[in-house]
UniProtKB/TrEMBL annotation:
It comes from Leucothrix arctica. This is adenosine kinase. Its cofactor is Mg(2+). It is an enzyme of class 2 (transferase). The active site is at D257. The lineage of its organism: Bacteria, Pseudomonadati, Pseudomonadota, Gammaproteobacteria, Thiotrichales.
Amino acid sequence: MKSLLGIGECMIELSSAGDNLWKQSFAGDVFNTLWYAKALMAEDTAIDFFSAVGDDQSSEDLVEFIEKAGISCAGIPRIEKGVPGLYRIHLDGAERSFSYWRDTSAAKQFMKSPELLWKQIATADIVYLSGITVAILPDEDVEVFISGLRAALKPGAIVAFDPNIRPRLWANEARMKDVITRTAAISDLVMPSFEDEETTFGDKTPMATAQRYQALGVKQVLVKNGEDDTLFVEGDKAEYFPVKTVEGVLDTTAAGDSFNGAFFAEYMVSGDVPKAISLAQRCAGVVICNKGALIPFETVKASV
Ligand code: ADP
């Protein structure tokens, strides 16, 4: 497999630099995953990001940041008078909370010209999306997205989906569960985090989560569970992979995103699931010992 396409939103991130000073960066769940895939991916692999951006300076900066990381966003729609979404990280000791300004972000309009997306999808071996990808779309666009996605895939390509459940992004719980479930049903690989699934769907165990997705026709399910074992299920085979204890956990932001990115980096080259899970766990273990969503490539490469 030679190409990975992520579809979603990348936002401006503001974190405190002390005394009313703000450090600006960029992040967003799907983009974070591409970042870690890029850090660990074979040289000859293409990584693309599909979203929508505006026509202002912040959108220019965002595109420049993404391209500079070696991730292409050629062919994405530009929204007239659009601006990127923004979020601010509040730190209270080691506790983090977030304020978001994303209701009017350009990324919500990534289905404005669906043919641009279908064209991009047709180039990818793995198409990766998350629950946030579908949560930010207007209702009518969700339907076009879900009904058109598989038809646009090239033969042999797969859809990977992390439900990444964020209740505050949804109008209500019933809608959230319905769209997450229907998006999973068009996916080949679902990569949930057990805590979210337990809270939303009432699953008693990671195996119950895996079986619920399998019942929708999903071929492979990879259930992350913090410091507890990672579960991989395919057909009637199930395997648990213990997570190594990590000392000095600082900030668990992007643990799941980085796990997914590292998983793809190995899986796309070797197709070896245990090896990919091992790299994914090691990468997430490094990310949670550093502050912020995006760790420099060199640090990631040197530490896993
Ligand atoms: P999310 O960030 O999506 O909530 P998880 O909390 O399940 O996802 O974490 C994703 C992965 O990060 C885990 O599968 C594990 O490999 C790693 N991880 C998370 N928390 C810890 C921890 N306390 N110690 C070691 N690894 C962890």
